[in-house]
């Protein structure tokens, strides 16, 4: 099976064309959710694949403390998409409120799922795979920690991708409680069925999805650059003097 390749950005290149695998593309078919439609891919309850752990609840608002010894990560520190790599400024430091914070600490290989959010947040219960983090980083109560079991054969980034699929997000939304502010119970999360494709297929899907996201981001930047150029030309035609030049956008190399 051929894996994904990076392509040069062109106006007529669709994100799906970035993946050259005939085996993987049907699994990524929009609308039909090819993974669910494929009877040969076993579907396993999430609570059989991962240990679901709650985040740490605080009695008062968390504020950055220069003397703090632990890092606190809340949903606000998560990226909108992709993975969490311990980016600077994504956590606040604080003195631990209890002696043992180990059950709430995250580590590379975990998947963080937003369990408390408002319905205006877009992807309400988005999931992010942890690829790196500072030592003694704890998840706040707005997050659930999904820790794949070694024998489960599930790739964390694949799991995060699957949980972020539109049909799965709707399923999570239907299981959440509350009005404007929603709460997703951990036992309800465990009921979600996950298609456990072969590891090689999981990795290929991740590559295709990440390439598509890269091309989508590039297309958005190119659109913004074109709009800036149009405004600059219009400004010069109307006022007879050039405006500030828009910043050029470069894309990934083949």
Tell me what you see in this structure:
It contains six helices and twelve strands. The chain is α+β, with helices and mostly antiparallel strands and 254 residues long. The protein has a domain at 42-196: Alpha-Beta Complex (Adenine-n6-DNA-methyltransferase TaqI, Chain A, domain 2). The longest helix is centred in the C-terminal third of the chain and has 41 residues, at 199-239. The chain is globular, with a radius of gyration of 21 Å.
Can you lay out the helices and strands and say which pair or pack?
Layout: H1 34-37, E1 43-45, H2 46-49, E2 50-54, E3 70-73, E4 83-84, E5 92-94, E6 111-114, E7 116-118, E8 127-130, E9 137-139, E10 143-148, H3 156-163, H4 166-175, E11 181-183, H5 186-190, E12 193-195, H6 199-239
Parallel strand pairs: 3-9, 4-8
Antiparallel strand pairs: 1-12, 2-10, 3-5, 6-8, 6-10, 7-11
Write a concise synopsis of the structure shown:
This protein is 28% helix and 17% strand. The chain is an alpha+beta fold and 254 residues long. It has a domain at 42-196: Adenine-n6-DNA-methyltransferase TaqI, Chain A, domain 2.
- The share of residues in helices is 25-40%
What percent strand?
15-25%
CATH superfamily of the domain at 42-196: DNA methylase specificity domains
Q: Which structural category do the helix and sheet elements fall into?
A: alpha+beta
User: So what's the overall shape?
Assistant: globular
Distance between the termini: 20 Å
